[in-house]
């Protein structure tokens, strides 16, 4: 298992972590907007909506960076696993 982990691309791990953080930030903002809507604070909703759109853009950019890296570097998780060796009888 340690060989599999060490063979994974560190850049892919960094990009995946970046994507995860961006998605989490976006989801948090969406929840905040929902809470403001429930309170009837329309002005605050409009201000936070702009920030939310920016966070969505960052999440999308992070997703695309991860996708491009995987396509160009050929390091998807499934591709980094060692191929099973056929047993000789």
How can the largest sheet be summarized? none
Q: Tell how many strands the DSSP assignment holds.
A: 0
Count of individual domains: 1
SSE string, helices as H and strands as E: HHHH
Shape category:
elongated
How many angstroms does the end-to-end distance come to?
A: 26 Å
Strand content: under 5%
Individual helix count: 4
Helix content: over 70%
Strand pairing plus helix content: what structural class? mainly alpha
Rg, nearest Å: 20 Å
Give descriptors for this structure.
about 90 residues, mainly alpha, 4 helices, about 0% strand, elongated, disordered N terminus
Description:
- With 89 residues, the protein is mainly α.
- The chain starts with a helix and ends in a 9-residue tail after the last helix.
- The radius of gyration is 20 Å and the shape is elongated.
- It has one domain.
- Helices cover 81% and strands 0% of the residues.
